[in-house]
Specification:
Layout (H helix, E strand, L loop, with lengths): L21 H7 L26 H8 L14 H14 L3 E5 L2 H12 L5 E5 L4 H8 L8 E5 L4 H7 L4 E7 L11 H11 L2 E5 L4 H4 L9 E5 L13 E5 L1 H14 L5 H12 L1 H20 L4 E5 L9 H7 L6 E6 L3 H10 L4 E2 L9 E3 L11 H6 L6 E5 L5 H15 L3
Parallel strand pairs: 2-3, 2-4, 4-5, 5-6, 10-11
Antiparallel strand pairs: 1-7, 6-7, 8-9, 9-12, 11-12
The structure holds pyridoxal-5'-phosphate.
Pyridoxal-5'-phosphate (PLP) binds next to α4.
């Protein structure tokens, strides 16, 4: 992982000539040093449109390219600060935020493809992303090849003359597989295709794909970046000319983020580094605890040597993230009893917030699959995904332990 720190991308800050650490950037990046009414926080500019004083101001804006805001769907001052902060954290030239992670993903993909193009995606990408790529894009004449994650030979073979990009995630859900980003970059550059990485599970704290040559990074900011399980948001980051392509389409698609959500994203980001450090440490402690527990069949955590991609994770990540996946011994009934006995961990989808959440993929994301289909994808009756929050690690461990004990009681 490169030690390079990025600059705060805002000309109005006093830090312009310095490079800053991630915690400092999480608090300050993107904000003007002087703000409305001397407020220390960035104001929520709750407006759908912006006033022009006279015709000259309109002409200055439309004809002479003076920068200012025009209409809510085309930009907002609170949103701009959030974009600058995320750019600084990810080390990106530009960023565009959206009303959800899926809006960021679908708008970015649509901005990059035309009919008769082809794309490649790995098979354990987020379910809705896979669905969009493999079914909806076909309606517009865009073909999609799904390749097994980690099969770099199949990945390279899948590339055709009309392939526009390779899309993957790292780490993936729920097995936390890690994509070798250097290898991905080598393959993509050889064939002149773009690379898109959904980096939601790692965040810029743990991994910065752009430093490995990835073209665009996507985030569901709903998760670690906002960090409080209270908003939906998404982002795309990368080179200016690529993000600008997405911005043009975004203005027409309209999946904009609300200014108040931008404020909550900015507020969440202020503690981003602290939360990530805590969540990385807690997840590692829980993974080790589970690995030594007699009622656990298997633990999937990239920080453990037993994880098949531990060596890649060690080479390209600073920390291994706040999600631990594990399979318990027993059957569907044992799994239900375990889940129902938890007292601290909430049963809820999502990850990255301050509260610890647990999901049972078989009952939630794969409820509409047959058992056979699920097992083919490795989604067993007894598989859980734990997304740790910022509680004391020993409290989460105690909760899991007591629930495991209850799950085998007659
Ligand atoms: C890896 C990943 N990408 C994208 C998304 C979609 O994000 P959102 O729910 O913010 O639309 C999710 C949601 O869980 C996710 O886990």
């Amino acid at each position: 992982m490169s030690k390079k720190k990025s600059k705060v991308l805002n000309d109005n800050t006093i830090f312009h000539s310095h490079t800053l650490g991630m915690s400092t950037q999480s608090v300050h990046a993107g904000e003007d040093r002087t703000r409305y009414a001397d407020s220390i926080t960035t104001p929520i500019v709750q407006t759908s449109t912006y006033v022009f004083k006279n015709s000259k101001e309109i002409e200055d804006y439309t004809k002479h390219g003076k920068t200012r805001f025009e209409y809510g769907r085309y930009g907002n001052p609170t949103e701009l600060v959030a974009e600058r902060r995320l750019s600084a954290l990810e080390g990106a030239e530009d960023c565009l935020v959206f009303g959800s992670g899926m809006s960021a993903i679908t708008t970015t993909i649509l901005a990059l493809v035309h009919s008769n193009d082809h794309i490649v995606i790995t098979d354990d990408a987020y379910k809705k992303t896979l669905e969009f790529c493999s079914s909806y894009l076909q309606r517009f004449g865009v073909e999609c090849t799904i390749v097994p994650f980690g099969d770099y030979v199949a990945l390279e073979k899948a590339i055709q003359p009309n392939t526009k990009f390779i899309f993957s995630e790292s780490p993936t859900n729920p097995y936390l597989n890690i994509f070798d980003l250097e290898r991905l970059n080598r393959i993509a550059k050889k064939h002149g295709v773009l690379t898109l990485i959904d980096s939601t599970f790692s965040t810029p704290y743990n991994q910065r794909p752009l430093e490995f040559g990835v073209d665009l990074v996507l985030h569901s900011c709903t998760k670690y970046l906002a960090g409080h399980n209270d908003i939906l948001a998404g982002a795309v980051l990368g080179r200016s000319e690529l993000v600008e392509e997405v911005r043009k389409l975004h203005k027409a698609m309209g999946g904009v983020i609300d200014p108040h959500c931008c404020y909550l994203l900015l507020r969440g980001l202020k503690t981003f580094s602290l939360r990530m450090e805590r969540q990385n440490n807690t997840a590692m402690l829980i993974a080790k605890f589970l690995e030594g527990h007699p009622q656990i069949k298997k633990v999937y955590y990239p920080g453990l040597e037993s994880h098949p991609h531990h060596h890649i994770a060690k080479a390209q990540m600073k920390g291994f993230g706040g999600v631990v996946t594990f399979d318990i011994k027993g059957n569907l009934n044992t799994a239900k009893k375990f889940m129902d006995s938890l007292q601290l961990c909430y049963i809820a989808p999502s990850l990255g917030g301050v509260e610890t959440l647990i999901t049972h993929p078989a009952l939630v994301s794969y409820y509409d699959y047959t058992r056979k289909e699920r097992y083919e994808l490795g989604i067993t009756d007894t598989l859980f995904r734990l997304a740790v929050g910022i509680e004391e690690p020993e409290d989460i461990i105690a909760d899991i332990d007591q629930a495991l004990k209850k799950s085998v009681k007659k």
